[in-house]
Amino acid sequence: MEKIYNNLNIENLSKTEWFNQFNNYQREQILKGLKANLDISVYAKPVFTGNQMLSIRLGLINNLDVSIYANPEFDPSQMEQIRDGLVVSLDVSLYAKTEFNDQQMGEIKSGLIDNLDVSIYANQIYDWRQMKEIREGLKDNLDVSIYATSDFDSSQMEEIREGLEANVDVSIYAKTEFDWQQMIEIRLGLEENLDVSVYAKTEFDWCQMREIRLGLEFDLDVSVYAKSEFDYEQMREIREYLKANLVI
Question: Model confidence at 13, in pLDDT bands (50, 70, 90)?
Fold first, then answer.
């Protein structure tokens, strides 16, 4: 039954056993392709879902090289990302790979649109959120090598990126032992020119760091409570007492 559609009109084709193997949505895509005089042999195959067929058909309408993504291993969302790249003449070969999901493809595509060196993050070791942080850093001409490692999750990457944008010494907290919330507290302290060495220590969780940072902002003697044996609530009580008794 292969290529039976070449010798039959649309009405007769719809009555064939070959055509009946497809579901209603697949049939719709095949018929629309025939009516538009497209080469439906590219996608009129049971291995493609109706949505995959749709993406291939839209590519054919736009005279795109659909062979790049007419692969049943690409889901419809991946196909869409590749097709969108082809529409604007991008080198989609950098992301038209089955190991990238559609969101990863989207980040690589966005980088290509901005003429960035996507080779820095076009790697399956990064999830799409990590790719986004690296892409945004590249877009702002930051030294992304400081955080472009899969050892950092996307939230950690974001805090390092924001520190670079603020021109603070991110080396103080760009360390895997700090989670993203601890990084926030250290970054905020650096932005206020505080002596973060007092609390940029793994022995403090982010809540404890926050209490110490707030104390430093009011020029309090935080040494009284900057001790790991105090939980953050105890630290807060001591900080508020010191602040209330602050002599100006």
Answer: confident
Burial class (CB in 10 A: 0-12, 13-18, 19+), 177: exposed
Distance (Å, whole) CA 71 – CA 45? 11
The residue whose two tokens read 């944008």 is: 165
Place of tokens 């790249």: 85
Q: Do residues 135 and 107 touch, judged by C-beta distance below 8 A?
A: yes
Q: E strand or H helix at 50, and its extent?
A: helix 50-61
189 close to 216: Cβ distance less than 8 angstroms: yes
Among 37, 65, 69, smallest CA distance to 53 is for 69
Question: Phi, psi at residue 141, to the nearest 5°?
Answer: 60, 40
- Whether 97 contacts 122, CB under 8 Å: no
Calpha distance 216→90 (Å, rounded): 51
41 touches 3 (CB < 8 A) = yes
What's the pTM value of the predicted model, to 2 decimals? 0.90
Query: What are residue 170's phi and psi, to 5 degrees?
Result: -70, -15
The pair of three-digit structure tokens given for residue 155, joined into one six-digit string: 């939230």
Instruction: Please report which residue ranges of 36-179 form alpha helices under DSSP H.
Output: 50-61, 76-87, 102-113, 128-139, 154-165
Fill in the DSSP letter of residue 146. G
Q: What confidence tens digit (pLDDT) does each residue in 171-219 have?
A: 999 999 999 999 999 999 999 999 999 999 999 999 999 999 999 999 9
Backbone φ, ψ for residue 148 (5° rounding): -75, 70
* 51, two tokens: 């949505």
3-state class (DSSP) for residue 96? coil
Q: Which residues fall within 8 angstroms of residue 93, CB to CB, at 6 or more apart? A: 68
**201 DSSP assignment:** S
